[in-house]
Design brief:
4% strand, 65% helix, Four Helix Bundle (Hemerythrin (Met), subunit A), mainly alpha
């Protein structure tokens, strides 16, 4: 995993431990950390350019979430996620997020929505630059900040947990082929639609966005368990 992708995420006001955990989740989801592989805290800390302690603490957080498992005297092994798990995470996110976007469209202060515009642009820029770690970090911040406008903290926590547990196989290949930019631009489209106040249109836009990456993954030639990329979209969770 390239250290430069990680270092530039350690810049916000979050606790260092939380920043590292978020960066590791993004790297894991993007496939920069490979399922079944074992990583040591000192080696990851060298990538971040920090001490091993916050990295070890962050990995323990990920272990509690089921994303990694400790390996005695070696580090942490990245756990694998089944197709059924990914399908269920996808279904749950759609059940929660689509109607919530409709409710937010009907009630949210339009200025609060516009405040998310810079984050939406960061997602697009990251996709164009093939910076997958920053792309996923910005995508996480956009979606959770948008859902936070519902005022339901437990809902945001639930979606955040579902996102943490998912894996986005084939993302690197999609980025290299320029297919990720279209999905990234849908964040601007979603904001534009919500700003019109049309809740039904906003829900449709959100549903389409959640399914877009799944469709893109089917075109990828690097999906696990498929020599040609195949049509097995069940492995690709929404982001």
């Amino acid at each position: 995993m390239a250290g430069q992708h990680l270092k530039h995420l350690i810049t916000s006001q979050e606790r260092l431990r939380d920043q590292v955990a978020n960066a590791l989740r993004a790297a894991l989801i993007a496939g920069e950390l490979q399922p079944g592989a074992v990583y040591s805290a000192p080696a990851l800390a060298a990538d971040f350019g920090i001490s091993a302690t916050p990295v070890r603490e962050a990995m323990l957080d990920l272990a509690r979430e089921g994303l990694v498992e400790p390996v005695r005297n070696k580090g942490f092994r990245i756990t694998e996620v089944s197709e059924r798990d990914l399908d269920q995470y996808t279904e749950l996110r759609a059940l929660i997020e689509v109607p919530t976007i409709g409710a937010i469209t009907r009630s949210a202060d339009r200025r609060r929505l516009e405040e998310l515009r810079p984050v939406a642009e960061e997602i697009v820029t990251s996709a164009r630059d093939h910076d997958l770690i920053r792309y996923l970090d910005a995508d996480r911040r956009f979606h959770l900040s948008l859902l936070a406008l519902s005022g339901n903290d437990r809902l945001v926590e639930t979606v955040g947990d579902l996102r943490k547990r998912a894996r986005l196989y084939g993302l690197t290949a999609l980025a290299e082929r320029g297919l990720l930019v279209a999905s990234a631009q849908e964040h601007h489209e979603l904001l534009d639609t919500m700003l019109t106040g049309d809740a039904a249109a906003a829900e449709a836009c959100m549903a389409r966005h959640l399914g877009h990456v799944r469709s893109l993954w089917a075109e990828s030639e690097t999906g696990p368990g498929s020599e040609s990329g195949g049509d097995d979209v069940s492995r690709a969770p929404v982001r």
